[in-house]
Amino acid sequence: MSLPSPSVPLSSTNPPLLALTGIVKSFPGVRALRGVDLQLNAGEVLAVLGENGAGKSTLMKIIGGAHAADAGTLAIDGQQQRFQSPQEARAAGVAVIYQEFNLVPALTAVENIFLGQEETTGGFLARSQEREQVSALFQRMGVEVDLDAPCRRLSTAQQQLVEIAKALIHKARILVMDEPTAALTSHEVEKLFILMRELRRQGMGILYISHRLEEVFTIADRVTILRDGGNVSDCPIHAITRDQMIERMVGRPLDQEFPSRHVKRGGPRLEASGLRRGKAVQGVSFQVHQGEILALTGLVGAGRTETVRLLFGADARDAGEIRLDGQVLDIRSPRDAIEAGIGLLTEDRKLQGLVLRHPIRENFGLPNLRRWCRRGFVQHRRERAELDRYIAALRIRLSNPEERVGNLSGGNQQKVVLAKWLARDCEVLIFDEPTRGIDVGAKYEIYLLMNELVAAGKSILMISSELPEVLGMADRILVLHEGRITGEITDVAHATQEQILQLAHA
Amino acid sequence: MPEPMKPARWLADYGMILVLVLLCAFFSAVTYSEQSPTGEAAAGQVVEAVLKAVPNGARVLVVASDQPGDAVFAARVERDLKAAGAQVLASVTGEPRNAREALQKIQAAGGSLNAVAATRVAGGWRVFTDLASDFPSLGSPRMITPASYRWPHFLKSENLLNIANQIAVIAIVAIGMTLVIITGGIDLSVGSLIALSAVLAAGFIRDRAGGVSASTGGMVLGCLLAILVCGAVGGFSGLMITRFAIPPFIVTLAMMLVGSGLAYILAQGQSIYQIPDSFVWLGRGADLFGLPNAVVLLLVLYALAQVLMSRMKLGRYLYAVGGNAEAARLSGVPVRRVLLFAYVASGLLAGLGGVIMASQLKSGSPTYGNMYELYVIAAVVVGGTSLSGGEGRMLGTLTGAFTIAVIQNGMNLTNVESYTQKVVLGLVILGAVLLDKLRQGRWAR
Question: Engineered SS bond to A306: which of A170, A280, A323, B365, CB 3.0-4.6 Å?
Fold first, then answer.
């Protein structure tokens, strides 16, 4: 295949495609970047690693023209640039694909790709021409995307392809990708990597941000590691090991990825039998025991999230019974579930877990207000005291509990969600992708917390797409496929990823 | 809040207060003019001056015109002078003709006259200019009038109370609208509910409570009934919105038409005015420190609403539902009940607004409240509440309502005609919100 891209001769005398030197950026109260250097050559995939809050997102926004640096220079092909807007960056050949895609959900792939740069003939849209171009491009990319469906109906992977196509149509030479694999299945990840390698062969420079270290070894040529807004490491991929990467990111040696625990499993607590809803969930039954972490896994779309939403009363079930400690629960709403002692950490914390525009304190208090209320009045002092306790216990990094929760980094946002459920003291906690988009250090802290919870006699139902996490944390694994349980693994210590994948493909 | 607020942040939150203060300063400056005290204040001053000029056994004529407050002036001067041992030969309240007649009578009776105690206006009548030559036998009575002073007409207490009274209905209805808008909705039906409530209350008093001779109990019952019916209409809107997921704009647009239509049907297109005089207690009375009752009610309601929004669980839920309904639901917030509360409250407050308006105007008419939903929304928005929900403050809305009232009042005082007033008001609303946006961009990062 051959993709449209300007041919850039690769030679060592040429200046690098993209060079950042001494980039400094401060926000009120935070010094996000304190003099970061970064080089990206044409025909190279550079992985940028770092914990949440290390400054990756800020750096990316400076490259993409969304933020202006306070100091330092940015050069493309040796020419200094000062982007005042994302438009200017795009014109200079930089395309940024954020984790939240920049697509208009109601428009089709073609309309999105040409948005703002529509092809016209005599003032009218040249629709068929646009369509042909896009269709040819997708063909050369070796992928299939429905050109007529509104983008909201496309899968995450397909939406990502639309974003990449947009970059290619705009003749981007620098592609910045933030966690591009976070929401993809392993099969989709493979396809994405094939495409990325082809783009690299044609001289594109790809800046790739990820928390998945395995993937970094598969795709990257070089790594730059950031910590606390500064560079700590910059080396070719073959000169570093996975453990070294983690140590440099967190700034201390890391003994193990998953903390061990010794908890005796108790009797069954939460029992679900015959849960059904439409095609997504077709008769799911299981038990979660006291002091147990039960993992629910399977491919994206297997019905994992849909199943736990029924347990939590977030969706109405067509059939099925839910018991807690032998008592049948009449759960019709999340409120009922919470009353009964069930908590749900949603998979999408921005849309479902938090009110981003509201203060941290109010988000923390939301499910707990009843505990701090007297005759309908919120006792602010008690609320604040409890929050302070959890901020310390979970090491939530923030400048002020009254600031908007949306200003926090992903890991700290997740900790706020965790805090609000911990304060509620639920008996059964459902964790839907608890570590998605979270850095290694924060992940470890969340694992520790899960261990403490089961040690205290709570039960945890965990959904995860990351198989190492499933194998490392669960006491028992249930595998779902097309709305049904297709297998159970009780001997987790000797289980393998292949075993799970086989069950997942049923 | 335990956190001390930074000044910049405070400005961003309550910046509209600054705009309001600037507007008041502007109208004070342009209405700065010669004023003379009236009523009791004027009376006190005049009595003091009379007693100083003629310390013992003064023979005095009291003259007042027929302007508002002048009767009070005359009565008070007469009473105080008599109490101080002076002799009030006559007390005139009316026109120059009456004053001349009184003077003639005093002259005919053959006594002397030491002083004429008059209001500023009456003192300027021509009958008094040549007193010595026209009525030589009276001696040479002194003319005593209250001293004038310079003060902005806008800032006179009567005018300020007038502003508060004028805006009471809009400000009270705006409390409910703020609740609804904070949940991310809108209530277009409030204007029609004002009319429906006024018609219901007035109609009940005329037909069921004995009309002009209705008892207090009957009137209260009629008002409560009207308010409750409006609350029920709000509840119906809320049910449509929560159970069938119809957008609030559509539901309340429909209820706006329904409410208005019902008001016309019930009133048969007429005004209902067969109401006892005492019915105006709520709208025109002033029992507490001279504050109008409607304004007292307004302040109490705002205080309650402010406590609800800042201190109570329900308030927190209202913000959360507007900020992210799904996240709120998954945190156990009873989203439907919270929304229902907002629309019922909005309906009840619109009903109360209608009752106050009926009381102010001592009648009920289906034409009341026309376009009020827009003024109410304007008050909320000028007060800094975001139409996208999740943000907003009660005290901001109060500021917004007063901003609109001050602009209208100021233009009345400066004789701007009503069509021009509309143009200016529209532009000011836009400008106020624009200013708020600009300030937030700079300071509230």
Answer: A280
| Judgement on whether residues B100 and B126 belong to the same structural domain of the protein | yes
Q: Which residues of B touch A339 (CB under 8 A)?
A: 332
Going edge to edge, which strands form the sheet with A79-81? A30-40, A18-27, A71-76, A79-81
> Are the C-beta atoms of A295 and A473 separated by less than 8 Å?
yes
Out of A314, A333, A366, name the one closest to residue B320 (CB).
A366
Length of chain B: 445
- For residues B171 and B348, the answer to whether their CB atoms sit within 8 Å is no
**B185: contact with A, CB 8 A cutoff:** no
Query: Does B331 touch chain A if contact means CB atoms closer than 8 Å?
Result: yes
Give chain A's length.
506
Give the model's confidence band at B14: pLDDT under 50 very low, under 70 low, under 90 confident, else very high: low
Tokens found for residue A290: 């006291």
pLDDT average, residue stretch B250-267 = 96
Query: What residue spans of B208-270 are helical by DSSP H?
Result: 216-243, 248-267
Would the pLDDT of B4 be above 50? no
User: Is any Cβ of chain B less than 8 angstroms from the Cβ of A431?
Assistant: no
Query: Burial of B96 by CB count in 10 Å (0-12 exposed, 13-18 middle, 19+ buried)?
Result: middle
Q: What are phi and psi of A103, to 5 degrees?
A: -120, 145
Q: Using one digit for the tens of pLDDT, what is the confidence trace for A343-362?
A: 999 988 888 889 998 999 99
> Hey, is the C-beta of A352 within 8 angstroms of any chain B C-beta?
yes
Q: Where in chain A is the domain with CATH 3.40.50.300?
A: 18-250, 268-505
**CATH 3.40.50.1100 is right for the domain spanning A268-505:** no
What DSSP assignment string belongs to B131-178? HHHHSGGG--PEEE-PPPEEEESTTSHHHHHHHHHHHHHHHHHHHHHH
Interface probe, candidates B183, B308, B309, B330, chain A, greatest A C-beta count within 10 A? B330
Assess whether B344 and B282 both reside in one domain.
yes
Q: Which of B149, B171, B197 is the last residue of a domain?
A: B149
CA dist list (Å): B59 to A426, B77, B92, B122: 90, 13, 15, 18
- Amino acid making up residue A276: R
Tell me the two tokens of residue A399: 């400048």
The domain of B58 spans: 40-149
- Tokens 């988009």 sit at which residue? A437
Give me the pLDDT at residue B1, please: 38
What are the structure tokens assigned to A177, written together?
């990708």
List the A319-324 sheet strands across, edge first. Answer: A281-289, A268-277, A319-324, A327-329
Of the candidates B149, B180, B206, which is a domain's last residue?
Answer: B149
Residues B161 and B145 in one domain: no
Residue B350 lies inside a defined structural domain of this protein:
yes
Whether A356 and B324 lie within 8 Å, measured CB to CB: yes
How far does the CA of residue A438 sit from the closest CA of chain B (Å)?
Answer: 20
B1 lies in a domain?
no
B31, part of any domain: no
Question: Which CATH fold would you assign to the domain A18-250?
Answer: Rossmann fold (3.40.50)
Sign of the four-CA dihedral B83, B87, B91, B96: negative
Residues B180 and B268 in one domain: yes
Q: What is the radius of gyration, based on Cα positions, of chain B? A: 28
Task: Tell me the residue type at A306.
Answer: E
Number of domains in chain B: 2
